[in-house]
Amino acid sequence: xxxxxxxxxxxxxxxxxxxxxxxxxxxxxxxxxxxxxxxxxxxxxxxxxxxxxxxxxxxxxxxxxxxxxxxxxxxxxxxxxxxxxxxxxxxxxxxxxxxxxxxxxxxxxxxxxxxxxxxxxxxxxxxxxxxxxxxxxxxxxxxxxxxxxxxxxxxxxxxxxxxxxxxxxxxxxxxxxxxxxxxxxxxxxxxxxxxxxxxxxxxxxxxxxxxxxxxxxxxxxxxxxxxxxxxxxxxxxxxxxxxxxxxxxxxxxxxxxxxxxxxx
Length: 264
Ligand SMILES: NC(=O)c1ccc[n+]([C@@H]2O[C@H](COP(=O)([O-])OP(=O)(O)OC[C@H]3O[C@@H](n4cnc5c(N)ncnc54)[C@H](OP(=O)(O)O)[C@@H]3O)[C@@H](O)[C@H]2O)c1
Known about the structure:
seven-stranded parallel sheet, binds NADP nicotinamide-adenine-dinucleotide phosphate, alpha/beta
């Protein structure tokens, strides 16, 4: 951290929402620790962030490897990096029926979306509480508000993130530390290339409402700075989340499947 600039760590900073959250944080006075597997795009981002006066540390880490979060926490400690804002953004999805899914992709999704987020937060939160200062963000999704046939594990992983985040945020009241769960809806990033869901009605239909990652990050930073517990991006996504939460499953399961199903 440079003089008077708080330090923010962003996982999944090599593309999409994570890269744009790093831009927002730098613009708003933070230095950065950028974490993902691909170092080159993070090095390019670190160069770009200098225009905001930000110093960035690039750490290449594969968060799908068991123990990656504690190794990362150890590396921060050995480099003397004290994190004021932890942005758990790294994540991936996959479409298709669960029983036909790639078992390697299943464990990768669990490790990145669930285990790394949980373990990294458990490692860094005690220091924040001790210092009575800190901001944590969990990037969940509107996918977390209802079960999602055709993306079952992804939706379940985001339901975990939402539930864990809301509960920890409540536990943290009065500590000086806040936790914000950010719930974007469909967003233009590399996500659909990885998940192979770009042809689903969610992204590709006349009524699809797809946001830019810059807009998601702008809203996310504002919610983080305000210490808001949950922020759903955009009016349509708020409606989608509410209907997912309150519709009978007999309706929401077939509707969600129709929306999430990608063409083979
Ligand atoms: N795009 C959407 O429609 C959407 C909607 C709601 C929520 N979200 C959530 O937003 C978050 C960011 O996704 P995005 O849309 O910005 O997609 P993205 O462009 O594909 O970015 C995903 C990021 O996660 C990192 N990542 C993936 N696997 C990793 C691993 N094993 N180890 C370390 N980092 C890893 C990627 O970096 P490397 O590949 O370099 O490792 C990349 O920086 C995710 O949690 C996603 O679930 C996305």
